[in-house]
Amino acid sequence: MSERSGCSIVITNYNYGRFLGACIESALAQTASGAEVIVVDDGSTDSSRAVIAGYGHLLQAIHKSNGGQASAFNAGFAASRGEVVIFLDADDMLAPGALEAVLPLFEDRNVIKVHWPLRLIDEHGRSLGRLKPDDVKRLPEGDLRQAVLRDGPTNRLWPPTSGNAWSRRFLEDVLPMDEAMFVIGADNYLFELAPFWGDIRAIRVPQGAYRLHGQNSWAALPLDRQLELQLAFIERYFPVLARHCENRGYSVDIAAWRANSWWCKLSRLLAAIDAFVPPGQPFVLVDDGSFGLEADSRRRAIPFPARNGHYWGPPGDDGDAIAELRRRADEGIAAVIVAWPAFWYLDYFTGLSDYIDANFRKVIDNECFVAFSRE
Q: Which CATH class is domain 5-214?
């Protein structure tokens, strides 16, 4: 391997030629000096090759046949020299000062990952006024090993691919990854392994932008299709993660991991909703904005509280919460479902809890959700 540099920004691209220039510009415009920029084109058939050629010696170009996300990660990392590596999706961008904010945190040798939220922008680069993830306080940090061992993978809030920087020491241990297994989900492979290698640090102000453009391969999928793919991914991935953990001296319980998995719990929740709420009937969903079910065409979930049909953050106080729920009851909503990410509502908003107990009947109460009916 050639001489190390401070940071490598590895841009992975497949047919995002219309966004690729802005992405490359954001990498080249970093105010911290010394970063190398590598663009891995994964067999694009659009204008991407011409866009890349336009930057000449300012970047290192890797052109390969289409192989998927893991293949692009493997190729980019093998060509990189940085002690810190960022995998940047070609439709996203970095803020100019991202590396200045990120690199000092890696001076602590225990840190193997730094992450941050991203601003949401539209296909033209205009701000949508939101962040991904939207609740920056929930970004985890510190030594998460015992928590992940206890709760299992898929239960932490990770930013998308472009909101993460990785220590080379970690990547050298876990790459190359299986390219056939992780055609998609290569970022999840890294997310869930990272806590077992060292500490994680969070920057709670956005250091880049995540572009929504209608062709984001994951965001464009219906929730049930996302769930199907995630459950299949879990079956492939959990044994891989378990082997890594056991090689590092950690004993794991895959059956408990499956039971605790966010996606397995969501599967049980959706099945219960389908059994409990008649098709087409609206219901109030208290989930602390976790699932985005308001966009689910199969189920008429009304987020709580809502503004313009979207979740609007926790209620200000008991009065606001009760008024919101009373409005929904006046509209004829007959069911309220409180999912596990929002169980704290029932403890914190005691007046709301008393109102629900007085006006609804509890019909289901388990570790995933509590369901109430007015019937």
A: alpha beta
243 or 217, higher pLDDT: 243
371 has pLDDT over 50: yes
Bridge partners (DSSP) of residue 131 are 119
pLDDT digit string, tens, across residues 352-362: 999 999 999 99
Spell out the domain ranges in the chain: 5-214, 269-373
For residue 311, pLDDT over 90 is answered with: no
CA 223, 74, 25, 106 torsion-angle sign: positive
* Residues 336, 363: Cα–Cα separation, whole Å: 10
Q: Max alpha carbon distance in the chain (Å)?
A: 70
The residue among 287, 251, 258, 254 whose CA lies nearest residue 270 is: 287
Instruction: Let me know if 83 is exposed, middle or buried by CB neighbors in 10 A (0-12, 13-18, 19+).
Output: middle
pLDDT in tens, 174-216: 999 999 988 888 998 999 999 999 999 999 999 999 998 866 5
**The pTM of the whole model exceeds 0.70:** yes
22 three-state secondary structure: helix
pLDDT at residue 219 is higher than 80: no
Residue with tokens 């061992």: 149
Find all residues with CB under 8 Å of 127, minimum gap 6, and list them. 119, 120, 121
What is the average per-residue pLDDT within 295-300? 86
In this prediction, residue 229 carries a pLDDT of 85
Q: What is the dihedral of CA 81, 87, 93, 99, to 10 degrees?
A: -50
> For residue 182, what are the contacts with CB-CB under 8 A and spacing of at least 6?
68, 69, 70, 189
Cα–Cα distance for residue pair 242/286, rounded to 1 Å: 33
* Among 215, 174, 212, 219, residue whose Cα is nearest residue 193: 174
| CA distances from residue 322 to 218, 349, 352 in whole angstroms, order as listed | 36, 9, 5
- Cβ(299)–Cβ(324) below 8 Å: no
Question: Is it the case that residue 64 has pLDDT exceeding 90?
Answer: yes
Helix (H, G, I), strand (E, B) or coil at 62: strand
Measured distance CA(71)–CA(178) in Å, rounded: 8
